[in-house]
Structure formats: C-alpha cells, structure tokens
Design goal:
The chain has one domain (2-147). The protein contains five helices and no strands. The longest helix has 45 residues, at 56-100. It has helices at residues 2-20, 33-49, 56-100, 102-115, 118-147. The mean pLDDT is 86.
C-alpha cells in the first residue's frame, strides 16, 4: 500500500490545489476536470514505478485515494478561500450584469450577496469534496486505461536472495 501512497498524495495535491484556486477552479465545471486529472496523474505515476501491470482496480483505488487527499485540501483551504472571494465574485458578476442590463445590476448584486453565507460555503465545500472523490476515482480508471501498456505481460519472476 505504501507504493500507492506517494502517487495518490501527488495527484490529490494537484487536484486539490487546482480545485480551490479562484478562476482556475472553474475548469471543474467541465466534468470535474481537475479531479479527473488528479486521478489519472496518480495512476500514471504508479504505473511508471510498478514492476507488474496495473489493474483497473488499482487505478480506482489510486483515484479514490487522490480524491480523498484533494477533498481534504478542498475543505480545509477551499472553504476559507470561497468565503474571502465571495465579495470579489459578486462584484464581478454584478459588473458584468450591469454592462449587459444596467437596471438588473443592482438587483443581481443584492441576490448574490443574500445567497452567500458561511453555511452555504461549507455545504458547497462538502459537495465538492464528494464529487472530487467520485470523479478522481473515474480519473484513476481512465489513467490505467490510457497509460498501462503492459496488458497481459507476464510478471517478472520473484527474486530468490538466499
């Protein structure tokens, strides 16, 4: 299990950090792109270091482990960042709406600010954490399908050091 831990941590840190950086995290709107990438990265790193062919089950485990690491990062770092950035995001959205329809801008700003609460940020963080685990598991499966080229290869014989 230890040889799976390092690739899972690396993949999880990548997906966790990319999922909490403002504006960069919007790529998660596209089928949880960063979660898929983190799971596939964990699988790729494990495949490179594995002497035997990696199975789809191993990829799913690696993806889930990476997703768990990313979920912790998303909750611990993402929720405070989300709370701090809520005012900036509401200003951007309201300015955008004002440029399209000036009469709707102030109403949009009031609605956005009313919907932004600490409890809402926590609920969104928990939902994101669950989605990261699910989609990074899928990313691990996809990573094995893409990067594992040793299908059906015979494993090397065990070494006898006696």
């Amino acid at each position: 299990m230890n040889n799976k831990l390092k690739p899972a941590i690396i993949g999880g840190v990548v997906l966790g950090i990319l999922s909490v950086i403002p504006f960069v995290n919007w790529a998660n709107i596209c089928c949880c792109l960063w979660a898929l990438l983190g799971g596939a990265l964990a699988a790729h790193l494990y495949i490179k270091s594995s002497p035997v062919p990696v199975t789809a089950g191993d990829g799913a485990i690696l993806g889930a482990m990476a997703g768990a690491v990313g979920a912790v990062i998303a909750v611990v770092v993402g929720i405070p960042v989300s709370i701090m950035m809520s005012a900036v995001m509401s200003g951007i959205m309201a300015s955008l709406m004002e440029s399209i329809n000036p009469s709707q801008g102030e109403m949009m700003r009031a609605q956005i600010e009313a919907g932004q609460t600490v409890a809402g940020a926590i609920v969104n963080g928990i939902i994101l954490a669950v989605l990261l685990v699910i989609f990074s598991t899928l990313g691990g499966l996809i990573g094995v399908a893409i990067f594992e080229k040793r299908k059906g290869a015979v494993p090397p014989p065990p070494q006898n050091f006696s």
